[in-house]
Specification:
about 210 residues, alpha+beta, nine-stranded antiparallel beta sheet, 5 helices, 9 strands
Length: about 210
């Protein structure tokens, strides 16, 4: 099983600095650049957050996917829902719906924050040109009037047997850049930038006349 580490970089860091920090220790094989947007969803009273779960609606081109993560689990399903807020019955029958339905109940799922993301992927190779670590660098910003920038996100995925290389990469990044505490995640950073306090003051309730 591959080992995954997620880091958020504070300050005005850019992908070239990640390349520079890791390129001295590994050969770098550049991969494709992709774009997506994702929206964090929760009820007005933060029921998913209080249950330790995060629900996102991720869009890549014309493809939609709902993803719930937290407590060591990840469940996803395709979706055709194009606008939020919606009630749970708008989500297609699936393991994901079964997972969150008891938590959400009759409350609506509201769009809390939407993020635009540009992802750069690369492989880190050893002297035999074998991939040891896969790296994903996400440049993210809020989908708001100011296009508020978010911390650079770096995901390190070590291939089986090379977990120490992933740890080494994390160490190299911490040595050369400002890395935020491990308990701060991309969704938390986006919610904070949008002015939300997860689990704090209740958000506006669902308008039954909404689609």
């Amino acid at each position: 099983m591959n080992t995954r580490l997620e880091l958020l970089l504070g300050g005005a860091h850019d992908p070239s600095e990640v390349f520079a920090a890791l390129g001295g220790a590994f050969a770098v094989q550049a991969g494709p650049v992709t774009t997506e947007r994702w929206t964090c969803l929760d009820t007005p009273d933060w029921r998913l957050h209080r249950a330790g779960l995060t629900l996102r609606d991720r869009r890549r081109g014309g493809t939609g996917e709902l993803i719930v993560t937290g407590r060591g689990e990840r469940v996803s399903t395709s979706t055709r829902v194009s606008t939020w807020p919606r009630r749970i019955d708008a989500v297609a029958a699936s393991p994901l719906r079964e997972r969150i339905a008891p938590i959400v109940g009759t409350r609506a799922l509201l769009p809390l924050v939407t993020v635009e993301s540009r992802s750069i992927r690369m492989n880190l190779l050893d002297e035999l040109q074998k991939t040891r670590v896969r790296v994903q660098i996400d440049q993210q910003r809020l989908e708001d009037a100011k296009h508020t920038p978010l911390p650079l996100r770096v995901v390190l995925t070590s291939l089986r047997g090379y977990e120490s290389d992933g740890t080494r990469c994390a160490h190299l990044l911490r040595e050369s850049m400002s890395v935020l505490p491990q308990y701060v995640h991309a969704v938390d950073a986006a919610l904070t930038a949008a002015g939300h306090v997860p689990g704090g003051v209740a958000m506006r309730d669902f308008n039954p006349s909404a689609p």
